[in-house]
Structure formats: C-alpha cells, structure tokens
Design brief:
Elements: E1 3-7, H1 12-23, E2 27-32, H2 40-49, E3 55-57, H3 63-72, E4 77-80, H4 87-92, H5 94-115, E5 118-124, H6 147-165, E6 171-176, E7 178-180, H7 199-207, E8 214-217, E9 229-230, E10 232-234, H8 235-249, E11 255-260, E12 266-267, H9 268-279, E13 285-288, E14 297-298, H10 303-309, H11 317-333
Parallel strand pairs: 1-2, 1-4, 2-3, 4-5, 5-6, 6-11, 7-10, 8-13, 9-14
Antiparallel strand pairs: 9-12
Helix pairs in contact: 1-2, 1-8, 3-5, 5-6, 7-11, 9-11
The structure holds UDP-4-deoxy-4-formamido-beta-L-arabinopyranose.
Length: 334
C-alpha cells in the first residue's frame, strides 16, 4: 500500500501520522478543512521530513470533492482522523458532532468501497463506556456516555455492517486510549483552540503560566490516590500502531479491531507529579468537583495488538511529560 490519504492531517494525531508515513516511504496526501487546526502544521511537517505533502483543503464529508480526488489517483488506504473530539463540546452541540463525524465517516466508507481502498478508523476507548472489568479487552461490551462517544460507537457499528456486506473490504478499527506527548523535534503537538479539554495540554499551559492552576476533577474515586486513572500513550507509539495496522491490512484480513494503549494506568496526580519532577517546573492545582461523564479508571489490555499486529508501546511517562513540555516551550517561542 504505497499511497495513503490522511483525513484530519493537520490535527494533533494527523500531523504525527503524516510525518511517520513520509519517514516510512509512503506516498502521502492530506485532506483537512482547517476547522480546528492551522496549515502552518504542514510547514512543520515539511521541516521535519523535508517533503511537501500534497494538501487538499476540504471537508472529508464532501462527497463531490472526495470523489474527484479518489478518481484522480490510486489511493491504497485512508487513515481517517477527521472529526470533532471534545467530549464537553459534544454535549453542548450534539447535532454538530453527529453531522460532522458521521457524514465524514460515511463519505470515506463510500469512497473506499467505490475505489477499492482500505480504511483505518480512528476510534476511542470511549466506546467501552463505564468499564465492567479492567484491563479493557476488545471483547468488553460497547456503550457510550456522551455524543462524542456515540459518534465513535455508531461509526464502528456502521463499519461492521459494511464489512459484513462486503467481505473483501479491509478495515482496521483502532481504539485509542489517552494520546499525549509530541514529536521529539517539538515542532508538532497538541494545539487545542481555547481552553484545553484534555489533561496534558492543560498541565502544560499551567506550567507555562498561561493558566493559573489546574483543576483536578475529583479525588474521591476508587483509585490509589482518589484521582482518575487513565492509560496515557505517547503519540508516536499510537502512530506506530497505525503503521502496523496498515501492514496487517495488506494481508486482506477483512475487519480488524485493536486497542492502542500501554496497559498501564496512571492517575492524574501521578502524571502531574511526574511532569513537575522530569521538567523541573511547578503545576499549581486545586481539587474540584468531579467532571460529569468521567469514569474512575480506564486502561487497556494491549495483548491483541501485540499478538496480531506485532505492536506494543515503547515509551513511558518520562518521555510523555518531557516531549509535551518541549512542544509547549516551542509553541510559545513561535
Ligand atoms: C483525563 C483525566 C479527567 C482535564 C477523552 C475522550 C477520549 C479521548 C481523550 C479525544 C480524567 C482529568 C482532565 C483537567 C482533570 N478523546 N482531568 N483536569 O476524558 O480520559 O478522554 O479525551 O482525543 O476519547 O473521552 O481525557 O484528558 O479529558 O481526562 O482532572 O483539566 O484527567 O478527570 O480523569 P479523557 P482527559
């Protein structure tokens, strides 16, 4: 599979994906509507890789534009990141999430079937809902507790229906746990608009003095220190999992589903303390009320990906907090 289309390619995960695809010798294209990202990211990718990646500013849901693209050249596989991803925003604007996330996925499915491309879909551990057991395996029951999670779940179910009707369609569903960190260059990273929803960008902005203090959402969970436990995974490990999935799709496996996590649970306060210790900075915080919709603990059993994709996470917390802080410092220097 030499030509890969990345949708959402100027986003946090997309930009790291573009960088690694070029490094691995893939012919790479990028589609993004720039709703939540900047085209400057492509300059950074070019600085890292030395290559200018063909970029189409478009909505992945735009069937006419996508059909023109797919008919103009062979696309062996699509890695579909494009979509809104903020849990809180999805509760306030559910229709925007359903329209955007579902439409773009349906268009990608139609294009892949019409032109014989494989698909890698960016799913999330959020489809496991409130864990019935831990660590989470791919066999855990599926449910969703917010509109964002429901878009992921409904797209997964749609993919399974399409796969049943088209056994020759090759698709990988990858369920991410909590992506953090940044490329070692510090040139690309998580760059949320406005007040960050996710923990790591908030920690970085607090350490940088942009935010006054981190609000820790509850310390009365049934966890070792009472704060939420998550499976944080370095973004470069997550991206390596996509390369492994692409290679697996070349064996024509039909529909495959894998967790991309480390298998290691880390609490919010553990992450904060490690961030301070490794980077020699302070992260002032205050314990506040729980955030609605949060689960106490969520971490992966990554053994299926190890067994079937030959993939497992390599980087630990020190790399995650160091690379996140490097990115924060670089992005302030620009
Ligand atoms: C992690 C922990 C919070 C912010 C969500 C989506 C998932 C994926 C990642 C998109 C929790 C605590 C956070 C803060 C805090 N989606 N926290 N103060 O909710 O596990 O996962 O984002 O990429 O699909 O569900 O990630 O980083 O928001 O929270 O205390 O200011 O940090 O309570 O325990 P989450 P998160």
């Amino acid at each position: 599979m030499s030509t890969i289309l990345v949708t959402g390619g100027t986003g946090y995960l997309g930009s790291h994906m573009l960088t690694e695809l070029v490094r691995q010798g893939y012919d790479t294209l990028c589609v993004d509507n720039l709703h939540n990202s900047s085209p400057a990211v492509l300059d950074a990718v070019r600085t890292i890789t030395g290559k200018a990646i063909p970029f189409i500013k478009a909505d992945a849901a735009d069937t006419a534009v996508m059909d023109k693209l797919f008919s103009s050249r062979r696309i062996d596989a699509v890695i579909h990141f494009a979509g809104h991803k903020a849990v809180g925003e999805s509760v306030a604007h559910p229709l925007m999430y359903y329209r955007n996330n579902y439409d773009s996925a349906l268009t990608m499915l139609e294009m892949c079937l019409k032109y014989g491309s494989a698909l890698v879909f960016s799913s999330s551990a959020t489809v496991y809902g409130v864990p019935h057991f831990l660590p989470l395996t791919e066999e855990h029951p599926l449910s969703a507790v917010n509109p964002y999670g429901r878009t992921k779940l409904y797209i997964e179910e749609t993919i399974r229906d399409v796969s049943a009707a088209h056994p020759d369609f090759n698709v990988s569903i990858l369920r991410y746990f909590n992506p953090v960190g940044a490329h070692e260059s510090g040139l690309i990273g998580e760059n949320p608009n406005g007040i960050p929803n996710n923990l790591m960008p908030f920690v970085c902005q607090t350490a940088a003095g942009i935010r006054k203090e981190l609000h820790v959402f509850g310390n009365d969970y049934d966890t070792p220190d009472g704060t939420g436990v998550r499976d944080f995974i370095h973004v470069t490990d997550l991206i390596a999992g996509h390369i492994a999935a692409l290679k697996k799709l070349e064996t024509r496996p039909g529909c495959i589903i894998h967790n991309l996590g480390t298998g290691q649970g880390t609490s919010v306060l553990e992450m904060v303390r490690r961030f301070e210790e490794i980077n020699g900075v302070r992260v002032p915080y205050r314990i506040v009320e729980r955030r609605p919709g949060d689960v106490a603990s969520c971490y992966a059993d990554p053994s299926k990906a190890r067994r079937e994709l030959g993939w497992e996470a390599q980087k630990g917390l020190d790399d995650m907090v160091r690379d996140s802080w490097l990115w924060q410092q670089h992005s302030m220097a620009r």
